[in-house]
Amino acid sequence: MARKPRGWTGARTPSALKRVRTAERRAEVNQPRRSAAKTLVSKAVKVASGGQAGDAVAALKDALSALDRAAKAGAIHANAAARRKSRLTRKVNAALGGAHVQTAAKLTKTTGKAAAAKAAKARIALAKADKAKGAQTAAGKARAALSKTARAEAAATAAAAAANAETKPEAKITAKAPARSAAKTAARAKAKAPAKVAATKSAAPKATAKPAAKAKAASKTPARKSAG
Question: What is the CATH number of domain 16-101?
């Protein structure tokens, strides 16, 4: 028998159904508190941008208390509540001081990609520099000073070595060139001298051997004529 396609795609197990019920109960409690806090925050910003100090202070107090209540009930995280409170306070102070305040929910982007990348690189470099310093105690400062002096000494020795290397190679080249040429000529002379000696030695026996052969040939020819 063919089965019908499943129409229900939600939770089926008892644990999943329980999670659905708890989520609904939490939403009924938390959602009104979240929305009330957001409404009071936006109201405080609008009142502060109007320029009325008394109303702005009262609206700010209401918004801060609403954020505290939402964080206490668990509707929002405590850190999120603290962050929103600090941002709201800065906005209200800037508005009362005469500065322009962004009242929209979403802030418009005012920096380009290149500027944002440059700022990010600067923040990373600053963080690395702070980490490299270590604990700013007496011992830490002493270690930093010692390492700084060691680096300075190493740089000075490296610069001196580089200066000496720049001046000495010319003298080394001029001194080595005649020595190399003299060594080459001596080696060539040694290589040629044994060859000449060997040539004279091999030529001398040949010269002595030819007259002896001629004498033997002369002695043999008369004997053959006499026999004939």
Answer: 1.20.58.110
